[in-house]
Amino acid sequence: MIRAVLFDFGDTLFRRAGEAQGIVEIAERHDCPVDPDAARAIWTEIHERAKSPGEIALARDLSPEAHRREWTRLFSMADVVLPGMGRALYERETDPNLWVPYPDTVPCLEALRALGVPMGVVSDTGWDIRSVFSVRGLDRFIDAWVLSFEHGAVKPAGILFELACEELGVSPGEALMVGDNSMTDGGAVAVGIPTIIFPQVAEGAPRGLSCLERILCGD
Ligand SMILES: [Mg+2]
After folding, report:
1. 10 CA → ligand 1 middle, Å
2. Which residues, by Cβ under 5 Å, contact ligand 1, an ion?
3. Deepest in the core among 54, 158, 181, 209, taking most CB within 10 A?
4. How far is the CA of 200 from the centre of ligand 1 (A)?
5. pLDDT at 56
6. Spatial strand order in the sheet of 119-123
7. What is the value of pTM for the model shown?
């Protein structure tokens, strides 16, 4: 029986607002307009490179310093538009107001809370994402926070999922992990946690989280 739910953060409960629009807005603010298609191409290139094994090996989610250093360097690929763009994009990346919940995130958290289900967040992050929840009053739903930079390990390391279960007072078999990345969030399976991996959805679409209430109700 499932008694607790563990959530990934990015692209599971929240997504970045605007994405490439950030490059356009920063450029406009400095009277240096950029074509939105060019901004989108740069944004895509940055995030493609960020996913490469060489970049991931730089362990940017193990400390705030590494996160700032490595992401500012990656974002600096946009300095071709405007010098200093990389630093400005990093500030946006870590601005809690620029992460938005999916349309079904809050209804899901409310429904699970109404069922008395304890919830945790297990995230690979080099900055404190609790602020993303607290600026919207959503931190009250989260009973356990396991953030990679506070534990010296990143997903798929099983220890992170096990720590969350321990904090929520459930065994791995009694928890459900919910994420968007089979490589990282899928690590929960190796320590015995049933796991749901949602595919990406179009901007503005629900994440698919409404099925969790039905699963927890046993329907
Ligand atoms: Mg994610």
Report:
1. 4
2. 8, 10-11, 180
3. 209
4. 10
5. 86
6. 144-147, 119-123, 4-7, 175-179, 195-197
7. 0.93
53 pLDDT more than 90: no
pLDDT of 46 above 90:
yes
Tokens of 214: 């039905």
Round to whole Å and give the CA distance between 177 and 160.
12
Q: How far, in Å, from the CA of 182 to the mean position of ligand 1?
A: 9
Please give the distance, rounded to the nearest whole angstrom, from the Cα atom of residue 179 to the centre of ligand 1.
6
Q: Is the pLDDT of residue 91 over 70?
A: yes
C-alpha pair distances (Å), 189 with each of 61, 174, 194, 195, 207 = 21, 12, 6, 6, 21
For 134-186, the pLDDT digits (tens) are 999 999 999 999 999 999 999 999 999 999 999 999 999 999 999 999 999 99
Closest CA to 17 of 102, 74, 122: 102
What pLDDT does residue 57 have? 86
Using CA atoms in the order 21, 92, 75, 88, what is the torsion angle rounded to 10 degrees?
A: 100
How confident is the prediction for the chain on average, in pLDDT? 95
Distance 30 CA to ligand 1 centre (A): 32
- Residue 212's H or E segment, with its range, is helix 210-217
**How many angstroms does the Cα of residue 83 sit away from the middle of ligand 1?**
30
Q: In angstroms, what is the span from residue 19 Cα to ligand 1's centroid?
A: 15
Percent of the chain with pLDDT over 70: 100
